[in-house]
Amino acid sequence: MSALTLPEIDAVVASARPVATDVVLLTLRAADGSELPPWQPGAHLDVEVQPGVERQYSLCGDPADRSVYQVAVLREPDGRGGSEHLHAHVREGDRLRVRGPLNHFGLHAVPPGGSYAFVAGGIGITPLLPMMRAADAAGIPFTLAYAGRSLERMPFVDELVAAYGDRVSVYTSELGHRFALSTLSGGTPSAPVAVYCCGPARMLTELEQVALDAGWPPDALHLERFEAREVTEPVRQESFEVELELSGMTLEVPPDRSILDVVEEAGVLVLSSCREGTCGTCETPVVSGEVDHRDSVLTPAEQEDNEVMMICVSRAACPRLVLEL
Ligand code: FES
User: Fold this and answer.
1) What distance in angstroms lies between residue 179's CA and the mean position of ligand 1's atoms?
2) Distance of CA 163 to CAs 48, 69, 157, Å?
3) Where do the domains of the chain lie, and which CATH numbers do they carry?
4) Tens digits of per-residue pLDDT, 116-130?
């Protein structure tokens, strides 16, 4: 679904329940009682935490239950203030505007003989919860390695162990247990393993390196980032042009501005949320031209396909890009 067609929902907080230290589980209903738009495991919601301030949270409930959405929010005192505001002010019965769901972390089918390895760091467990339920319902083998600072700060540990038993391994740094990512494998051609990981940037970067060093197949590793990845200098230091095919405009993007800023200033409607390349809301189809992909959403294979780009952070690697805008 294009971001421009994402449903906007006036939601009401049906419950706000602590599920770990500094983690609250919000259950949301449509304010008018209607059925909520469908979603698949891995999807997230844009939540307007304050007027003009949106944050993205993974849906962690049951996709079959169209009456509610559930998101778990970690309070981050050193964050940008969105989670602090939700923890301090949002209570049962409050209204929240949400947009979505949008999914850039979908659970792909594995071939016969295949399995899933889920890896979570802290609050990164949330998108993996519906994935494990789906894998379990489909009878596909899986394991979960769940790492965090302490058990008190890791939501849903007890439920996971109760539901999935020895398929779940829990690692707490407080007790000196550390999960060795290097023990993971992308499997073999006859028994492929699809690895799905969500957690802190350090964990994802390390796992990318493990996959690279071990020569995993390109589609073995699937990552969900909460924080923007570190990027190097843009490929192109000079200005470039963007031709907006649908709007009939050509605009110049200087080195110190994003395509999104320039396009918005020209009065073209583009939905955006994070503006740092992590949510996928500003995804825009590319008609022609080479893109300098600088986002944290698309996989390396998707970036290579050059069919879409995140215009909040990605730039041109050529003098002129043509976009379907
Ligand atoms: S606005 Fe979030 S990726 Fe561009």
Assistant:
1) 31
2) 33, 21, 10
3) 3-102 (2.40.30.10), 115-225 (3.40.50.80), 240-323 (3.10.20.30)
4) 999 999 999 999 999
